[in-house]
Amino acid sequence: MTDGPLLWYLNRGTGVVLLVLLTLSVVLGVLAMGGRAGRGVPRFVTQSVHRNLALLSVLLLLAHVVSAVVDTYVDIRWWQALVPWGATYEPLWLGLGTLALDVVVVVVATSLLRPRLGLRAWRAVHLAAWAAWALSVAHAIGIGTDLARPSGLAVLPTAACVGAVGVALVLRVSRALAAPRGDVVRSAA
Amino acid sequence: MSRRLRVDWPACQARGLCHELLPEVVDLDEWGYPVVAGTVSDELLPDARAAVRACPRLALRLVD
Amino acid sequence: MSAPSPVPVPDRVRIHPGPALLAGIGDGPTLAAHRQRHGPLPQVGLDGLVGLVDAIGLRGRGGAAFPFATKLRAAAGRRPVVVVNLSEGEPASAKDTALALSRPHLVLDGAVVTARALGAREVHLVLPGDRPATAHQVRLAVAERRDRVRFRLHAAEPRFVAGQARAVVELMAGRPNLPVTAWAPEAVAGHQGRPTLLSNAETWAHVGLLVLAGEAAYRLHGTPDEPGTALLTVTRRGFEPEVVEAPYGARLREVLPAWAVGSPALVGGFHGAWATRETLWGARVSVPGMAAAGMPLGAGVVHVPDPGTCPVAFTSAVVDYLAGQSAGRCGPCLNGLPALAGAVRAMAHGRDSAARIDELSRLVERRGACAHPDGTVRLVRSLFAALPEEVDAHRRGTCLAATGRQVAS
Prior knowledge:
The complex is a heterotrimer.
Chain A: H1 5-31, H2 43-70, H3 91-112, H4 114-117, H5 119-126, H6 128-143, H7 145-148, H8 152-178
Chain B: E1 4-7, H1 17-21, E2 26-28, E3 34-36, H2 45-54, E4 60-63
Antiparallel strand pairs in B: 1-4, 2-3
Chain C: E1 14-15, H1 31-38, H2 46-55, H3 68-74, E2 81-85, H4 95-102, H5 104-118, E3 122-127, H6 132-144, E4 150-155, H7 165-172, E5 196-200, H8 201-213, H9 215-218, E6 229-235, E7 242-247, H10 252-255, E8 265-267, E9 273-275, H11 277-282, H12 287-292, E10 301-303, H13 311-324, H14 331-348, H15 354-364, H16 372-386, H17 388-395
Helix pairs in contact in C: 2-3, 4-5, 4-6, 5-8, 13-14, 13-16, 14-15, 14-16, 15-16
């Protein structure tokens, strides 16, 4: 079983879905957080979805890593999933993925411990979620064999993810530039 | 035993999640800021804790 | 952007000699003159000091009248800090300035003896940001001292809320001089989390006098239930403020200057309350007594508007100023006070905005990191309580004060 194609498909499948989920999480974090209670979807719902997407991503990440390590088709050791160097299989691209995992672990851990950390420290670490996403994209493009020999099934979602985050960023930046500073109906701090 | 919700006013930015999760105790004023009415009864304690956890600004605390 | 204070910060003050704190001010503010009159500063242990201030029921003179003994007990912990609040953020008040100019060493003695009793090595002084003469005098006085405590001087920002306890603690930490939420009193956990005994300059002067003169001498003035004296600042437009020392229990009409008697006045400063002629005529200087009469003594300011000044218009000018002095950190205050100012202004212009004033008052009270909105509401409510005929006239579109409508004091 460990040397059939099942694990390989599992690994690539979880990889693509993971990228999509991470992207959704980032887009929600960028666009839907902040602002006040208002019409539309209640804030606690978007917050919940954001958190649950992130936690689901962690589970999928676990499956993604396990399937890669257990599979004997490529030589990936357990520790190479946590330490971003020393791998024999695609050391650079694997290392980026490992780095992404490390960052995800730190971001999730700090979020679970947010009340203890205080807002400023938590936010500083949470911004690293961007890095985790970017590293994941690089990892996907570099090591994702479905992308090396362009197969529509993998290129399309990846391109869509990159596009979505790009659009979200632009929207967020333009919103920040447009919003007048010192608008009365919020704290000046 | 009931407890009170206290708002850290400089941190609060009227995001409104506390009102969404605990409308029985937290109302919103005309500018969107929480108006805490009364104490939190035992049945509402889980919702109150959820509201405290959900606040994106960590501006809500449950005190005795 | 923000409205100016209807009572400007004074650059001169007239200090009347008094029976206790302000005794012998003619001798000058030097350390030598002070020691000549009061002798050396005794050493007092913490229990002894607590006993002394408890016996006379010493209350803070910063406006809240908090029992000093309670604060002193709470501050007895590890590495306590002693802070003298001389920032005098209330523009109409000049009593702390009067002490700085005439009796600085009484204030410093009080702080030093307490620091020694607590085992604190530092005494912090918060100087006003908008009264250079006051700050200068304090620096001169500190330079004369030879105590074995370190004096650390801070300059408050020139704003109304600069003297608020947490705002002072923020200033001491090098952060903006603005209030933050306090999860514990600063006497328990203040500067750097340490027990911080922060009190008004006049409070420290009373501690100093009590230790130097002894309880028996301190009790020569005041009443058996309320021993001691209080400094009052009496102000009117166009004249320098006058600072008088009033024994507790004395009739207010006998301690106020003659020109101040016989008209309604704003008592307690901008966070205080309006008082009618009759109330003032019968009142005695007393913290509980004046609180019961609806005009809390607060920081001891008595502002007498010019005859013919409309109190509604004056209140509106004060609320405009107070709204502009919001630290801007708490939504209800940042939004609510300007709205309240607008509603009071509408009433000053002859419109019936009483319902909106009441609604906004209830929205801003107790919803902020400090008591700035609460004090503002107290002022506005006192207008309705003490001067209802004036308010009713305005609600009907007229004004009792003058034939033409005057706006500010």
